[in-house]
Design goal:
Blueprint (H helix, E strand, L loop, with lengths): L5 H16 L7 H9 L1 H8 L6 H20 L4 H11 L16 H16 L7 H10 L2 H10 L9 H4 L12 H4 L8 H5 L1 H6 E3 H6 L10 H14 L8 E3 L6 H14 L3 H4 L3 E5 L1 H5 L7 H15 L3 E6 L17 H10 L5 E5 L1 H8 L6
Parallel strand pairs: 2-5, 3-4, 4-5
Antiparallel strand pairs: 1-3
Length: about 375
């Protein structure tokens, strides 16, 4: 008979809750993955509840091991959890008032996890064993999420599953160092000016540093319109117009999240969403033409890297930006040619009043 660790049992409970809330008739491997990836945040909550300290420490140890395995794969549990959940459509099963059972595919994951634990001589099947079994046979939904993050599904090395030997110093816990995942510095080497004055929102999404995005019919429609404009060969620069606080930046972050999790790959594969700060560009400019030179270098880098989608919050600030510093032209006039020829993909965000006051009056912009 299979013996589960406390963390594996907790992941199973979370998976059952996920299936019930989504009104799915059975627990699938996707629900189980969400449960495994939720252990780290869950252990922070249950530590305030009266719980057996020994069991809690065991759960924390396995949760840390999960984070370490995913870190080696260069993906965070947050991205994997959110990406998988966002791809699961709501079901139509009646509200569950009884136990939600596992599907055959999910039972197979448990069986493989048990085989791995027995092969290692472990006393029980742990949450890392379940994660390894899922990554060995992820299915189409999880495979798409992994592919979007640039991760190849495959077996997890056995040494990654074993807990650290007693007396060996344990790695720093994610609650101490955060859930950020190290990324290769390729982008920084290719676009040094853009990296200096911009913020890579796609990287932040991959590292799980963005706030959760709650989808609705309105936001889904906005994202569809945004994608429709971005794929056009010219005039592919949408502007999000709305009052402050309605969620314009959240829409762009949701777009970056889709890039990170591999959704809409036909349109977004390989893209980078980078927020460009006009304030950073202007700051520190002392001599005539210095701002113009900075912005021109940014535009040249974006031209050379068509995968980059710029995001400029407070887009109305491009009108007049840099002129006070003695530059021959402001940011809007510098960007117009590249925008008109489709050499620069840019998403702007501004309020209705500022759009009418600054942008609408300039037909070329």
């Amino acid at each position: 008979m299979m013996k589960l660790s406390a963390a594996a049992g907790l992941a199973w409970q979370i998976a059952a809750s996920e299936a019930a809330m989504a009104r799915h008739p059975l627990i699938e491997r996707e629900h189980l993955l969400i449960g495994v990836c939720s252990l780290h945040k869950t252990v922070k909550l249950i530590r305030f509840v009266k719980e057996d300290p020994l069991s809690l420490e065991k759960i924390r140890t396995e949760a840390d091991r999960i984070e370490e395995i995913l870190s080696q794969l260069r993906i965070s549990s947050t991205v994997l959890r959110r990406g998988t959940r966002s791809r699961l459509r709501s079901g139509h099963a009646p509200p569950a008032d009884q136990v939600v059972h596992r599907s055959q595919a999910c039972k197979e994951i448990f069986r493989r996890g048990q085989e791995d634990s027995e092969r290692e001589g472990a006393a029980e099947t742990s949450a890392p064993h379940l994660l390894a079994a899922i990554l060995s046979d992820p299915g189409p939904i999880i495979s798409a999420v992994l592919a979007g993050a640039g991760v190849e599904p495959g077996p997890v090395p056995p040494e990654s599953l074993a807990p650290p030997p007693r007396g060996e110093e344990e790695p720093a816990r994610a609650e101490d160092v955060g859930t950020m995942v190290s990324e290769p510095e390729v982008a920084a080497a290719n676009t040094p000016v853009l990296d200096r004055y911009g913020r890579d929102i796609t990287r932040a999404a991959r590292e799980g540093r963005l706030l959760p995005f709650v989808e609705s019919d309105r936001t889904r429609n906005t994202l569809r319109q945004l994608l429709k404009v971005l794929v056009m060969p010219t005039k592919n620069n949408p502007v999000l117009v709305g009052e402050a606080g309605v969620g314009k930046t959240a829409i762009v972050e949701a777009l970056a999240e889709r890039v990170a999790t591999g959704r809409d790959r036909r349109v977004l594969a390989g893209k980078r969403v980078v927020e460009l700060s006009m304030a950073e560009l202007v700051a520190g400019t002392k001599y005539r033409g210095e701002f113009e030179e900075r912005l021109t270098r940014v535009i040249d880098e974006v031209r050379a890297h068509p995968e980059v989608i710029l995001f400029i919050d407070e887009f109305h600030t491009v009108v007049g930006a840099g002129r006070a510093e003695g530059a021959p032209m402001d940011a809007g006039n510098i960007m117009k040619p590249a925008l008109a020829r489709g050499e620069l993909r840019c998403i702007g965000a501004t309020t209705i009043a500022e759009y009418r006051r600054c942008v609408e009056k300039d037909p070329a912009l």
